[in-house]
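thought: fold this chain, then report.
action: predict
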Amino acid sequence: MLTLYYHPLSSFCWKALIGLYELEIPFEKRLVDLSNEQDRAAFARVWPIAKFPVLRDDAASRTVPESTILLEYADGLGPRPGRLIPGDPDRALACRLRDRLFDAYIHVPMQTIVGDRIRPADKRDPYGVARARAQIETEYGEAEASLGDGPWALGDAFTLADCAAMPALFYGNKVAPLGERWPGLAAYLARLERRASIARVLEEAAPYFAMFPG
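observation:
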């Protein structure tokens, strides 16, 4: 049995959920409330760093943290309707690159901005937020230029890159709106939101959206 330790509002957990739903892999979800000391302590016994998502494979006695590694692991568990990592080495490399770019230059800076919003007023970092926003804007331009005929990041096949793109762009759009400057990315995000696996993640997260520091 596979168990995913997660929270429905966590952007990196969205990435893991999307991939697992795409692969149609049976798994159990274990919601972790990090503000609850008992929950946090139990989670830390599974993964001492206590950051989600984390996938636990009891059959293999293996704990797999980090969304990209988690999905690469799940992708290799056996024959599935689709694959998140293309079989062709060049396309696999392109897939991993797009995954890292979405994570490192949109997803993580977005979290910097959101994190700053929940700090006490005297602890905020306007310079750090400005740098994060500039990094997002730069990557918006790079990502927009990289989109081909689509519909997905690498063309016809939905891949790990799209799993990474969805939470990065969804939450990124809230702190650094796409607006009319990036019509290709805005259209891509709209297509992502209509995909069944992603619509399911959004529906599951909806009761928690009020917790987002808008």
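thought: worth noting. The two ends are 37 Å apart (CA to CA).
final: tokens above.
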